[in-house]
């Protein structure tokens, strides 16, 4: 357990994965379990922070001592994160946010029709919340952290994503068939906008969370 070095700080963590509805019963989603975001919320609370956890479709119980805001879609997640970020010292975007959503929502369940091919699903872009929070810092010294799951060229892709998003830190995971999603463990590299590179060995998601808060507190001064 670390020092209570986040006392007096407000941190915002997003967790889980957004679901983008097609009709009342169907959605486009992803395999994010929310475990890494919950580990970040728990460890920040243990270090004394006031924590707002914006949870998208996780089946996990609310961590003790954390304000939980439950959301479904990327647009709802954006609203909740921006609202909480207004007075936050740090924003950590661990949620898997859908890059696209179906252009139209059918108010009634979409039905198959005999002898007819299905209609294509047309997608439109979702707002990039991490880029937006990074560009419009609610506070001048606010620390913004993103996550990236990469399957190849992990470091090179991570570096360019860090620049594109404009965040201070980017936690880069290598993902594959059996790695990361839903598991209790994680292995990552944390890239800093200052050029730093912090490798995090394979281990519990709590351990990665503690390292993220170490890097955040150092930047908060
Ligand atoms: O671009 P990519 O989805 O790989 O970026 C991942 C990072 O960006 C995560 O921190 C995720 O929470 C954030 N993100 C976002 N809004 C989006 C897509 C991703 O904030 N529309």
TrEMBL record:
CTP binds at residues 99, 109, 127-130, 147, 161, 165. Residues 6-217 form the DNA/pantothenate metabolism flavoprotein C-terminal domain. It catalyses: N-[(R)-4-phosphopantothenoyl]-L-cysteine + H(+) = (R)-4'-phosphopantetheine + CO2; (R)-4'-phosphopantothenate + L-cysteine + CTP = N-[(R)-4-phosphopantothenoyl]-L-cysteine + CMP + diphosphate + H(+). One of its GO terms (molecular function) is phosphopantothenate--cysteine ligase activity. Binds 1 FMN per subunit. Residues 11-221 are annotated as: Phosphopantothenate--cysteine ligase. Keywords: Decarboxylase, Flavoprotein, FMN, Ligase, Lyase, Magnesium, Metal-binding, Multifunctional enzyme. Its cofactor is Mg(2+); FMN. Pathway: Cofactor biosynthesis; coenzyme A biosynthesis; CoA from (R)-pantothenate: step 2/5; Cofactor biosynthesis; coenzyme A biosynthesis; CoA from (R)-pantothenate: step 3/5. Its EC number is 4.1.1.36, 6.3.2.5. Catalyzes two steps in the biosynthesis of coenzyme A. In the first step cysteine is conjugated to 4'-phosphopantothenate to form 4-phosphopantothenoylcysteine, in the latter compound is decarboxylated to form 4'-phosphopantotheine. In the N-terminal section; belongs to the HFCD (homo-oligomeric flavin containing Cys decarboxylase) superfamily. This is Coenzyme A biosynthesis bifunctional protein CoaBC. It comes from Streptomyces rishiriensis. The chain holds residues 180 to 400 of 400 of the full protein.
């Amino acid at each position: 357990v670390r020092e209570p070095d986040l006392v007096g700080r407000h941190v915002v963590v997003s967790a889980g994965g957004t679901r983008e509805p097609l009709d009342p019963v169907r959605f486009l989603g992803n395999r994010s379990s929310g475990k890494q975001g919950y580990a970040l919320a728990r460890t920040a609370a243990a270090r004394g922070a006031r924590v707002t956890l914006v949870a998208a479709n996780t089946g996990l119980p609310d961590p003790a001592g954390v304000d939980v805001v439950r959301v479904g879609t990327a647009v709802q997640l954006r609203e909740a994160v921006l609202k909480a970020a207004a007075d936050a010292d740090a924003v950590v975007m661990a949620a898997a946010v859908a890059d696209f959503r179906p252009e139209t929502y059918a108010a009634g369940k979409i039905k198959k029709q005999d002898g007819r091919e299905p209609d294509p699903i047309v997608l439109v872009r979702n707002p990039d919340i991490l880029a937006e929070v990074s560009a419009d810092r609610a506070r001048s010294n606010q620390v913004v952290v993103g996550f990236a799951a990469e399957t190849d060229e992990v470091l090179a892709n991570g570096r360019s994503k860090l620049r594109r998003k404009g965040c201070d830190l980017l936690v880069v995971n290598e993902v594959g068939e059996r790695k990361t999603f839903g598991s209790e463990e994680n292995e990552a590299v944390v890239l800093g906008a200052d050029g730093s590179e912090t490798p995090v060995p394979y281990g519990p998601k709590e351990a990665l969370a503690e390292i993220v808060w170490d890097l955040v507190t150092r930047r908060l001064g």
